[in-house]
Design a protein that fits this description.
Shape: globular
Mean pLDDT: 89
Structural class: alpha/beta
CATH topology: Rossmann fold
Strand content: 15-25%
Strand order of the largest sheet: 3-4-2-5-1-6-7
Largest sheet: 7 strands, mixed
Number of helices: 10
Helix content: 25-40%
Bound molecules: adenosine-5'-triphosphate, magnesium ion
CATH superfamily: P-loop containing nucleotide triphosphate hydrolases
Length: 223
């Protein structure tokens, strides 16, 4: 696969056009995340939102690319076990992934897939399970998070919207931080507060909010 072809066709602006204002915004987000916790560096981070289609997956994927470009070893983990999209963003198959690891009783190697970005690998969802929250809340999931941390500097988790299902909240308790993605002009204030309350109730560490799709003349994405 030619790298140039991948980047010119990629939906990921951090990869396609690293000098764009949007890519710059992702770099600022990366820096803000690094500085959000100076005493204990954040090693595991989850993104969620209040409603579907607010740009969680796209934001997280661009952030992952940006972190890998800063020479961090990054693993992106698809924990949206309802509508997984990360494999499509990176043009990779999804026959095996998170759910295959959870079902496999042997300590087999993780089906991590390299992406077109050096240092960035992807654990896709695998076949979709009947009860995602049970799986994400299981002991096996806890062990998997620890195992992924051994293999990367930063592990990033994509999830469904937090107010629709409990998947994100269940997982958030086990990770270092949570980013909430809000969509400019769309996310309702009361829903944003509700999402924040839900996350704080389970004692998740909400490190900040990303305002996606803010109206700026030169950029299509802003934090
Ligand atoms: N800043 C943006 N500018 C333009 N398009 C965007 C932006 N953010 C997201 N989109 C588009 O909006 C759609 C939804 O984005 P994405 O899949 O990232 O949202 P999501 O919150 O992960 O959705 P879901 O709730 O289904 O997981 C996609 O088609 C994506 O390309
Ligand atoms: Mg998504």
């Amino acid at each position: 696969m030619s790298t140039n072809e991948t980047s010119s066709a990629s939906p990921l602006i951090a990869l396609r056009d690293p000098r764009s204002p949007a890519a710059e915004a992702y770099r600022t987000l990366r820096t803000n995340i690094q500085f959000s916790s100076l005493d204990k560096p954040l090693r595991t981070l989850l993104v969620t939102s209040t409603a579907p289609d607010e740009g969680k997956s796209l934001t997280l994927a661009n952030l992952a690319v940006t972190m890998a470009q800063a020479e961090q070893r990054v693993i992106l983990v698809e924990c949206d076990l309802r509508r997984p999209t990360l494999h499509t963003l990176f043009g990779l198959p999804n026959e095996e992934g998170l759910t295959s690891v959870m079902l496999d009783q042997r300590e087999a190697s993780l089906p991590l897939q390299p992406t077109s970005v050096a240092g960035l690998s992807l654990l896709t969802s695998g076949p979709l399970p009947p009860r995602p929250a049970d799986l994400l809340g299981s002991r096996r999931m806890e062990a998997l998070v620890a195992r992924l941390q051994d293999e990367a500097d930063m592990v990033l988790f994509d999830t469904p919207p937090v107010t629709a299902v409990t998947d994100a909240a269940v997982l958030a308790t086990r990770l270092d931080g949570v980013l909430l993605v809000l969509k400019a002009g769309k996310t309702r204030r009361d829903r944003a507060r509700e999402a924040r309350r839900m996350l704080e109730k389970v004692k998740a560490n909400v490190i900040g909010v990303v305002l996606n799709n803010a109206r700026l003349e030169t950029t299509y994405g802003y934090y």
